[in-house]
């Protein structure tokens, strides 16, 4: 499955007046301003990755970014098959490489707001770059809200400029893996927000809009315990671009990141 090739279940229902202006900052439920989106590309078979996995956990704990972990499969040849990896995650990283004009990929790589990259183990650089992006107008300019209401997930996107895909990224909240072979052999490593599936559920054209998903996508599909909603522009049909809005929601009593 490529990044932008699937639409999901319910048709889009347009609604107006849901948000004020595009300049309204993205907010978490606890009132924190969401600074941006961090997409970490990592692998259980990469000896350099555990510090980056720990850095992502700190971002999750801070609660002011949407933090996602994409396990890639190209290190499996070293002797350990990553239990959370998928070819789709690898495809997404290579798509970002095209967007960035890079000839290759690496782990651990953190993509920030779909616009830039840093070493995923450098937590200070990640936070600093997100602050710089926000000050330069390259942060999350469009408000996005997602809530579980009974048997539905309600998604609201505010007004803004341009066009973008509405992308839902499903993840497992936490996994502990006993790595038995490869470069991390003998280690038990905790992984947070490991991506299991990506779906494009519709388009946004700058006007306020609502989208609805069945809540069962979190409770009944392969144990997925949360999802992020990314408002992401596209450089072309297969190449993702800037993320201009985002939020996340959890299954269970927590309800939201």
Automatic annotation (TrEMBL):
Origin superkingdom: Bacteria
Keywords annotated in UniProt: Signal
Segment forming the signal sequence: 1-28
Keyword Signal recorded: yes
SUPFAM superfamilies attached to this UniProt entry: Thioredoxin-like
Record-linked PANTHER family: LIPOPROTEIN LIPID ATTACHMENT SITE-LIKE PROTEIN, PUTATIVE (DUF1223)-RELATED, PTHR36057
Protein name stated in the entry: DUF1223 domain-containing protein
């Amino acid at each position: 499955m490529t990044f932008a090739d699937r639409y999901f279940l319910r048709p889009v229902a347009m609604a107006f007046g849901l948000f004020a202006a595009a300049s309204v900052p993205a907010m978490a439920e606890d009132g924190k301003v969401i600074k941006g989106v961090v997409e970490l590309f990592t692998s259980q078979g990469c000896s350099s990755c555990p510090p980056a996995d720990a850095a992502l956990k700190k971002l999750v704990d801070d609660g002011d970014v949407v933090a996602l972990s994409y396990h890639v499969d190209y290190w499996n040849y070293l002797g350990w098959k990553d239990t959370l990896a998928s070819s789709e995650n690898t495809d997404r990283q290579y798509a970002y490489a095209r967007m960035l004009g890079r000839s290759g990929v690496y782990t651990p790589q953190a993509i920030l707001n779909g616009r830039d990259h840093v070493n995923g183990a450098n937590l200070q650089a990640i936070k600093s770059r997100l602050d710089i992006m926000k000050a330069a107008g390259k942060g999350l300019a469009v408000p996005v809200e997602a809530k579980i209401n009974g048997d539905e997930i309600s998604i609201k996107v505010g007004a803004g400029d341009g066009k973008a895909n509405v992308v839902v990224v499903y993840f497992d909240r936490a996994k502990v893996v006993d790595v038995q072979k490869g470069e991390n052999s003998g280690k038990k490593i905790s992984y947070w927000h490991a991506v299991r599936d990506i779906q494009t559920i519709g388009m946004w054209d700058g006007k306020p809009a609502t989208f609805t998903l069945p809540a069962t996508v979190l409770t009944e599909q392969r144990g997925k315990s949360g999802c992020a909603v990314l408002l992401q522009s596209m450089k072309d049909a297969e190449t993702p671009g800037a993320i201009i809005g985002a939020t996340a929601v959890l299954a269970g009593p927590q309800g939201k990141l």
